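Renewal narrative, Specific Aim 1. Our central claim is that a sequence can be written position by position from structural information alone. The example that follows is taken directly from our test logs and has not been curated for this report. It begins with the structure tokens describing the chain, in the order in which they were read.
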């Protein structure tokens, strides 16, 4: 088992469009929001390299691989890699956690088509 390694730490303060702006952009062309629609921020990138929100940004489109403690290098996630996303909000008086989302990347299913 590989040692967990943080590859990015970012902050929602760096978001380019807030949720109200994203909703306006989504609906201004006539696309209605429906009950049950999923709405998310997408990639959140900060201003420093360790706060970039995607591996494409973190590795400069694959030209600068991330070196893991095991010695392995990554330019993108691979089959068998586990990915964890953790989040919280806080101010001086409280901290609210959103838990952790963890998934292991499985190989694509081969089709006989």
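The sequence written for that structure reads:
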């Amino acid at each position: 088992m590989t040692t967990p390694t943080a590859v990015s730490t970012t902050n929602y303060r760096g978001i380019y469009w807030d949720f109200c702006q994203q909703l306006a952009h989504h609906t201004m062309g006539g696309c209605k929001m429906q009950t049950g629609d999923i709405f998310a921020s997408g990639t959140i990138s900060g201003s420093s390299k360790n706060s970039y929100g995607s591996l494409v940004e973190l590795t400069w489109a694959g030209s600068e691989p991330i070196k893991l403690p095991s010695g392995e290098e990554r330019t993108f996630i691979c089959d068998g890699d586990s990915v964890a996303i953790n989040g919280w909000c806080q101010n001086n008086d409280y901290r609210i956690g959103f838990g952790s989302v963890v998934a292991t990347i499985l190989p694509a299913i081969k089709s006989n088509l």
